Each structure stands twice: as structure tokens, then as C-alpha cells.
């Protein structure tokens, strides 16, 4: 066999090996991406806010599956939530509910001893809104992501606790940010959807991990 032929065959073998390794790497990367996508439970109480917030959650690439639960102050609903918070392990729960339901839910969460990573208070009227948020280190980047995507949102000066102002598209931006497994990550060409209808009222948002 000539030296030239051996060189060509060696190059083909190395190329095939590199291709196999490349395909294995792509397969592992794809698997890692799949593993990063997790199901999430979304709690809502208001029809208008529900549509915008849930659409924002579903638009986030890190969400594998969305379960929707409408909450109210009935005894049966309270009992179901209390049992779920007490028995589920490793479940991610985010929500945007009316302020009365929000206070009740947060009390249940604290009683169950689950981790509350984000609490937001939202007051909005005629498309203009104020948002006061308190976060743990795990979701501190959510504040920046929310401010980035919410139309007309003021930029936070700190990420641990801040009062922000925004206008009509804040609810879907909030859902998108709270759904993020890694809020510091920027998803290329992926943004929360915009809704034509303003979300007016008093709301509480939260991110909980059981």
C-alpha cells in the first residue's frame, strides 16, 4: 500500500471518528436540553390575567408541560392545595392570583414548609402598573428578565427587592420569567407573547418549590 493511500485512509478513519464523537456530543447536548425542561404547575384566579400569564409560562423553552389550576377561597380548594403542598416533592409552582387568594396561598406554603422563591405584589389600572417584588437568590435574575421583557418597564437598581413600573404586557412577561429554570439565561429568538388587553386589578405572584 502506498504512503499516499495510507494517508487518505487514515484521514477518512479520523474523520469518521470525529464525526461519531460530534454526533455523540450533539446527542448528549440534546439530552441535556431535554433534561432541563421540566413540568410546572400554574395557579391562576382571574380570566384575563390567566390568559396572559399562562401564555408567558408556556412560551418559555424550559417548560416541558404545563398543568393549570384555578384557585378560589372555597374550603375544598384550600384543602386540596394544602394537601398538595404538604405531600408533593420537587414540584415547581408559579402563579398569578388575586391578592386575597395570594395571601391565603402564601400562608399555606409557609405552613407546609416549602420554599418560596418569589413574591410579587401587582397593582395595575388602565394599562399602567406598579410591581413590588421580593426574591431569594435562586430567582433574583427573574427581576432583570421581567424588566427586560415587560413593555415600558423601569429598570431595577437592585435585584433582591424592588418596586418597578410597567405597562400593558407585564403579565405574560412575568409568566415567562417565573417559568425559567435558569433566569440568567437568554433564549435566542424566544420572547413572551404580547396581549392586546390590559390586565387591571390587584394581584399576587409567586414561585414555589415543594
Describe the structure.
By secondary structure, this protein is α/β, with parallel strands linked by helices. Helix content is 44%, strand content 27%. The protein has six helices and seven strands; from the N terminus they run αβαβαβαββαβαβ. The protein has helices at residues 3-36, 47-59, 75-87, 99-112, 140-149, 170-178; strands at 38-44, 63-70, 92-98, 115-125, 128-135, 161-166, 201-209. A seven-stranded mixed beta sheet has the order 2-1-3-7-4-5-6, sandwiched between helices. β1 (38-44), α2 and β2 (63-70) form a beta-alpha-beta unit. α5 (140-149) packs antiparallel against α6 (170-178). It starts with a helix and ends with a strand. Mean pLDDT is 77; it is low at 17-35.
Secondary structure layout:
Elements: H1 3-36, E1 38-44, H2 47-59, E2 63-70, H3 75-87, E3 92-98, H4 99-112, E4 115-125, E5 128-135, H5 140-149, E6 161-166, H6 170-178, E7 201-209
Parallel strand pairs: 1-2, 1-3
Antiparallel strand pairs: 3-7, 4-5, 4-7, 5-6
Instruction: Report the average pLDDT across residues.
Output: 77
* Distance linking N and C termini: 67 Å
State the low-pLDDT regions, or none. Answer: 17-35
User: Helical element count?
Assistant: 6
The main sheet comes to: 7 strands, mixed
Roughly how many Å is the radius of gyration?
22 Å
The topology string of helices and strands comes to: HEHEHEHEEHEHE
SSE class: alpha/beta
Proportion of beta-strand residues: 25-35%
Shape: globular
Strand tally: 7
Helix content: 40-55%
Major sheet strand order: 2-1-3-7-4-5-6
